[in-house]
Amino acid sequence: MTAVAQDVHLGRVFARACAAEWTRLWTVRATWWFLAAAAVTMVGIATIAGLEAAANPVPPQGGSAWAAAAVTGLPGQFALLALALTAVTSDYATGGIVPSLQWTPRRAVLFLSRAAVAVGTATVLGVLLATAATLASFVTARPLLTLAGGGDVLPDVAFVFAAGSAFALGLAFVLRNTAGTLVTVFLLMLVLPLMLPNFGYPWTSALAEALPGSGAAYLLIGEVPGMTRTSSVVTMLCWAAGALLLGWLRLSRDDANR
């Protein structure tokens, strides 16, 4: 009976912590700015692409509008990754991490609830915006495109947003600094995967393939030499799990306000 009572109590604490994190996330103005940036990027690019296809003298026929979800997800993910990481770093910037831990003194509960809410929100928003981008492309290019193939694209989009936001959130717990975390995420997810293969050395190409941005690019657009679907998934999972583990270790062992 004691073990059951403890389990119920822990579950109740976790549920309350998730509710608090949800309220905190949506009462911060930055969340809405990041959401607006992602929406403008993804839906805007898809709309422009659809209009250009419709205006083409020899327009392509029979393509899937779901390609817009994958292509726009590549740049659009950065706004939602920023949303996830600032859910952590803003608390350190304002000193709010101290009252957060006073409210939820069990650090494992705080870590899991913040990760669940931030990563879950970024993933769901990414899938919804990818769907909106698809519909925008379909409507503006109609009747050139079809809506077939959504079952193949959406799972990849959801995985990329989930793994990417988990990586960003874990890194935020490690660095505890908004600018540093943003720069690091931007480098590992975009800059280095694009730059390293251009040097022409085998080791730079191998290093690029080991970065999370290469895995995301392969799953979304499929144009990364040397990578496979399995290697892309494993790469992103390893970076996400590693960042979350390091973030948890720092939260659990270091002073919160350092």
What features would you highlight for this structure?
258 residues; mainly alpha; 10 helices; 81% helix; globular
Describe what you observe in this structure:
The chain is an all-alpha fold and 258 residues long. It is built from ten helices and two strands, in the order H-H-E-H-H-H-E-H-H-H-H-H. A two-stranded parallel sheet has the order 1-2. The longest helix is centred in the middle third of the chain and has 35 residues, at 107-141. Residues 1-6 have low confidence and may be disordered.
Q: What is the spatial order of strands in the main beta sheet?
A: 1-2
What's the number of domains?
1
Order of helices and strands: HHEHHHEHHHHH
Query: How far is it from the N-terminal to the C-terminal residue, by CA?
Result: 40 Å
Low-pLDDT sequence parts? 1-6
Q: Strand-residue fraction?
A: under 5%
Net shape: globular
Query: What is the residue-mean pLDDT, rounded to a whole number?
Result: 90
Give a quick account of the main beta sheet: strands, pairing sense, barrel closure. Answer: 2 strands, parallel
Count of discrete alpha- or pi-helical segments spanning 4 or more residues: 10
Q: Radius of gyration, Cα only, in angstroms?
A: 20 Å
Determine the structural class based on helices, strands and strand pairing. mainly alpha
Summarize the structure.
This protein has helices at residues 2-26, 29-55, 67-94, 97-103, 107-141, 150-175, 178-195, 202-209, 212-221, 229-253; strands at 63-64, 145-146. The chain has 258 residues and is an all-alpha fold. It has one domain (17-253).
